[in-house]
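Notebook entry, cofactor series.
This is the third protein in the set we're modelling with a bound small molecule. For this one the ligand is fe (ii) ion. I'm keeping the input format identical across the series so the outputs can be compared line by line later. Sequence and SMILES below, as received.
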Amino acid sequence: MSRLKVEIIPYFDDNFSYLFYYNEDGPKALVDCGDAGPVLDFLERKNWTLDYVLATHSHYDHAADIPALSKEFPGLKVIKPKGEDRISTPAIEVSDGDTIKFDEGEIKVVAVPAHTNFCVSYYISDSVFVGDSLFSGGCGRLFEGQAEDLVTAMDRLRSLPGQTQIYFGHEYTLSNLKFAKSIEPSNQDLLDYIDRAGSMLSNGEHTTPSTVALEKLINPFFRIDEASVIQTIDPNGELSRTNRMAALRKQKDNF
Ligand SMILES: [Fe+2]
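Returned structure with ligand:
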């Protein structure tokens, strides 16, 4: 099987769309579209057409310009989470565990409701596209779900193979890492990654993608069972796992 290729298409201040494909002459899929302009420019430069757009969730900065893509590419297949009526473009609705055949591979739907009640991630060929459900060093705010939903979402994403590339929706890495350091000031992997991420950004690079293996070492939302995280958020050891997650998320909201 060919390797999955992923093009990072930045837009707005810190958003990312991702265009993925196996073969240049094969189908192309885009994850999220808050602004069609940079996507259309990219496709035009390559003289490519678009076959799929996958929506991770309904927020405007991820989904507002899906109709513009549908208009541009009449054969475009729109994929969205089942029941997410806030995305109104006619779409194929998908639920947890569904698979969509894509060229040589298949896209697997991983439901991760928490940031919104309908968030999904899309997993294909050792890559996962997570929207705002997970960031490098952090995760999306709980706009609709509860802490127990966030626990489930983090456990699901954490259980993907370590080498899985994580393509997240915003370049929030440095501010997330600042918070992570306040939780685990002695985590050497975290301190090393802060330096690495800082150099990448000052060289004009993005920190996306991360990997599951790296996030397990540095992301406090993947590390709520680690003694060093528990020591900060629940020094007396009184909280349940769910309440630890709730306390961690609340601290981040107020950071
Ligand atoms: Fe969002």
